[in-house]
Every structure is written in structure tokens, then in C-alpha cells.
Design a protein that fits this description.
The chain is mostly beta strands. Helices cover 0% and strands 53% of the residues. The protein has a five-stranded mixed β-sheet with strand order 2-9-8-4-6, with no helix packed on it. A four-stranded antiparallel β-sheet has the order 1-3-7-5, with no helix packed on it.
Length: 256
């Protein structure tokens, strides 16, 4: 509420009970996502809404294509088992989902990319979670928003996606970022360099070549910050990534 306080006038000699007030934990809506896909395919962005108090949540989306080409489509799905995948039989996200304090709602935003759009075309989707607090008199609601970006890659180009092992982390905790590279095209890809950087409010800890894609003969860290510092992380891949091949690299950071 605009005023974070509750006041009442007490009369002398009167005992008051049933006066309830206080702050509730904030809701958590995580995490923003950026994925690259081939034209005509779909990106699956996974999100989790965790209620800090009892109530009900609704999720809405506003999309902005850049450039403004037709054919994009966004649908929201209820990830019942919270495994981050849209499994057979999982329903569309209901208009309103009741939640108890501490309960989580897992959401998958399926972002369909148009066929025939130029490589580099993208669409920004702003997902807003609006939460209505149960038992609030007068009624009280709060909204949290995050952004998904889906980018169309070359038909015979490298597709990159990035994930993190934790949606939330306290200062001093570690986050592991995994970058998956794949070749959805029909010809091998060579001279591959993958580059990323430490996110804001984190410092570098370590990096690794996690799994090697088919046709890749070597993976080397060509650039990385010192432990406890910030900066660019770069991997150079030797050989050629075969059509249909994929692999991963990873790096770990410490939250400040």
C-alpha cells in the first residue's frame, strides 16, 4: 500500500483484539530469457512465479516484433511438473491461478517464430504477473514483469541458448550458466567462437567446456577474467560442428 502503516485510536480502559497487520514477503517472478531459433520453429521460455502470500495470479503478455514482420505467435502453458518442458497433456495457462503462501506456479511461454523472416529478426515479449492478495480489505494487487527475447538465426547457422541452474540466489551463492550450441542446418560449421560475460552483481569463479558436439575436435578457453573479477569469457571450438550436432560450455559466478 502507499502508506506502510496501520493506525487506530485507542480508548482508555478498552481491550482491543483481532488487530492484524504486518508485511508479507514479496512475490518472485523469474527469470528473463533470451533464445535463438530457426525460422518456423518455436522457442520455449521457462518461468516460475512464487507467491509470498496467499492469493491468485494472472499472467498477460505484450509482444513487440523488431522489425514488424507478421507470423510471430506467443502462447502460455502450465508446466504441471515444473520440468521446464512442454509435455504432452499439459494445459494452457488458466486465466487465474490460486496460490497459497510459498507455492510456485511454473509457466512455459511458447514463442513461435515466423517462417521466411530474415535472420536477426526478433520479438520482445513482456510477461506481466498480476497477483491479487487474499483477505486484503480493501482489495490489493501487485504486478511484476519480465522480458523474453526470441531471435531468428540463420537457417544454416549456429543456434545459441543460455540457461542458469537457479532462479534466485542470495549474496555469496554461486550460479552456473550453461550455454548450449547447436547446428540445426544441413552443413558443418567451423571457426566457432562463443563469447559471454559475467552478469551484473556477480564475479567470475570458473569456466569449462562441458560437452563436445559431434565433429568438434577441441574446445579451449581463449579469454576469461581472474577469479573474483568481471569481464568476458570466450571459448574457441576446433573442428566442424556437424549438422544436427550440439554441445555445451559453462561458467560459474559468485553473487555479490
Amino acid at each position: 500500500r502507499p502508506a506502510d502503516l496501520l493506525t487506530f485510536t485507542a480508548a482508555a480502559g478498552v481491550v482491543y483484539d483481532g488487530v492484524e497487520f504486518g508485511d508479507v514477503p514479496p512475490n518472485l517472478w523469474a527469470a528473463p530469457s533470451a533464445l535463438g531459433v530457426a525460422g518456423g520453429t518455436a522457442a520455449y521460455h521457462r518461468h516460475t512465479f512464487t507467491a509470498g502470500s496467499a492469493g491468485a495470479v494472472s499472467v498477460s503478455a505484450v509482444t513487440t516484433p523488431l522489425p514488424p514482420v507478421p507470423g510471430w505467435g506467443l502462447t502460455l502453458w502450465h508446466d504441471l511438473d515444473c520440468n521446464g518442458a512442454l509435455d504432452a497433456g499439459e494445459p494452457a495457462l488458466p486465466a487465474l491461478v490460486p496460490l497459497s503462501a510459498g507455492q510456485a506456479l511454473c509457466v512455459i511461454a511458447k514463442h513461435q517464430a515466423p517462417l521466411g523472416a530474415a535472420a536477426g529478426s526478433q520479438e520482445l515479449a513482456t510477461l506481466t504477473a498480476t497477483f491479487s492478495y487474499g483477505g486484503a480489505v480493501p482489495a490489493l494487487s501487485a504486478s511484476d514483469a519480465l522480458d523474453d527475447v526470441t531471435t531468428i538465426t540463420f537457417a544454416n547457422g549456429l543456434v545459441i541458448s543460455k540457461s542458469v541452474d537457479l532462479a534466485n540466489a542470495a549474496p555469496g551463492n554461486f550460479l552456473v550458466y550453461t550455454i548450449t550450441y547447436s547446428n540445426p542446418g544441413t552443413v558443418p560449421l567451423s571457426n566457432i567462437a562463443i563469447r559471454d560475460a559475467t552478469p551484473p552483481w556477480t564475479t567470475f569463479d570458473s569456466a569449462a567446456c562441458a560437452t563436445t558436439g559431434a565433429g568438434i575436435t577441441g574446445c579451449a578457453l581463449s579469454q576469461q577474467p581472474a577469479a573474483g573479477a568481471t569481464g568476458t569469457v570466450e571459448w574457441l571450438l576446433g573442428g566442424s560442428l556437424l549438422a544436427g550436432g550440439s554441445g555445451t560450455v559453462s561458467f560459474r559466478v559468485r553473487v555479490e
